[in-house]
Amino acid sequence: MLDIIKYLIRYFRVSKIFSSTSKEQIKINTHKKLSIIIPAMNEVNHVEASLDYFSKLSDYCNVYYVTTAKEQSKATYYALQKLISSKGISNCFVYNSPNTEGTMATQLIYMAKMLNKEAIIGIYNIDSFPKVESLIY
CA end-to-end span of the chain, whole Å? Predict the structure, then answer.
């Protein structure tokens, strides 16, 4: 009997929330862009193909490339920066993790901490080209 009462209390709380939310608000809240993090180190050969692909998905995601100080030449960072600027890509960004030690996870954590706490994060490698359907939720 106690379980039924708890269920009913939860049901009415949820019903109250949805009844006070307009359909327009629900539509806006369900179309939040994903934040895709792509760690990159010594990936100059993959930069252009990745940017070309993800720039076409601006309705679905923002893409954050994160390079690392371990790549002393910063070749990947500069290649990303140059192409984003020259092609006028508005949904792709590049950051350089200052850590000279660590792994790919270090880059991911560095970037994730910079994003909004409510961001929905996806992680791909620079040579990954996910189907659009995987970005829709």
Answer: 37
Tell me the per-residue pLDDT of 61-101, one tens digit each, with 9 for 90 and over: 999 999 999 999 999 999 999 999 999 999 999 999 999 99
**Contact in structure between 106 and 97 (CB atoms under 8 Å):** yes
pTM for this prediction: 0.76
Confidence of residue 116 (pLDDT cuts 50, 70, 90): confident
Burial of residue 66, with CB atoms counted within 10 A of its CB: 0-12 exposed, 13-18 middle, 19 or more buried: buried
